[in-house]
Task: structure prediction
Amino acid sequence: MAVMFVVISVAASSIMENFLYTQRINSHREEMSSVAVQVAPYLEQSDAVEMYNIATKSGNDIGGRILVLSSSGIVQVDSFSQYNGWKLTVDEVNDIIYGKNSASYGKHNIYDGATGNYFPVLYTTSSVMSGGEIIGAVLLSARVTDVVDALASLRMQMLWAYLFTSVIIFLSSMLLTNFIVRPVQELTNVAMKISNGDLESRAHIEGKSELAELGQTFNMMCDRLQNVDRQRSEFVSDASHELKTPLASMKILVESLLYQDHVEEPVYKEFLSDINGEIDRLNGLITDLLLLSKMDNDILSINVEWVSLRDIVNKCAHSLEPIAEKKEITVDVQVADEVSIECDPLKLRQAVNNLIENAIKYTGENGHVYVTIRRAGQEAQIRIEDNGVGMKEEHLAHIFERFYRVDKARARGTGGTGLGLHIVRRIALMHGGRVEVESNEGKGSVFTLVLPIQSKREEK
Result:
């Protein structure tokens, strides 16, 4: 702003200077043209007395010094009677005599012997004509101190205005800078605390400015970051607990065998069978954890192709027949609409397998599991309904979370890891779909896997 003010001041001063000098020059030109006409006949006759009278009178009226020069630049008359007979070679005279111009002007600084100082003057010349020829020139030397003083006064006023404005701008900038920097400093301090592990810190910026909105967004980011950290801690804790449980069971079984003598073969087989079951459970848990880790890190990709839902569901139901037959549960697959979709068949089969397996696990003996395939617009639906134990409504919002179990004791008895439904939801999201659930305690549950006909992959 200071640079702009200086530029504007210089421009304004230059414009004012040109305006004042132009006014003075135009006035002198008219006056010198009139003097040139008056002295023309007397210059031609070399009548110095009449020329002197005209020069003196006009010089007094104008307030300057008038010289009448011949065509060779010799001063014929000087109203101050000082340069009579001198030859002047100033540019303004040469422009008339040699340049054949009708008028000329220029600014000069003249030395004043009385005061020892220089003072500004404006030379204005006009040609003296006779018979269409230039026979001489008249020169007006007029002080322009008033113009210089006016410009100096203007520049001084502009300087004071500049200084006053600069002070105002400086103070305003300090206040504005403090207004802007304080919230930025607040955000910086909170960011430093967050980076040092203090996830509880929040920025407190009041108002409705852009910085206040930035502070709110920053706090939202901190909330999500804290939530992610909390989920990570919970995941590590839950995963550690889940891994520790089968290991503890195996340790108890192994120690029972080690510290018992003469254990009969049936007991050995029973204990080893239990250990084998815990190993399978541990292996399944590790497999699910690795799968989730790949999903969380966006390492897992999907390879889509067009497949028939009937084929995928039938394969899943067939692979789970041994479990269903053991509990005398009927798995009935119904195809309301023949649907082919674009998906990753391996991932989709894993999701469907998890849902049907869950339905079998939580359905009592002689129960029923119904799997229905239908189309709804541009979406395909796989509906898995059972008449098992069901769930209370309060659990429905959490069952897709990692390691969440409605009844932990009962879930451990089924051999589940608590990750199956979470994996189902992630696979659905990877395909651009969703999982819906309805359940009534004691009456059973209905899970619906909804997928687009044409795959819409999860946005990273």
About this structure: The chain is about 55% helix and 20% strand.
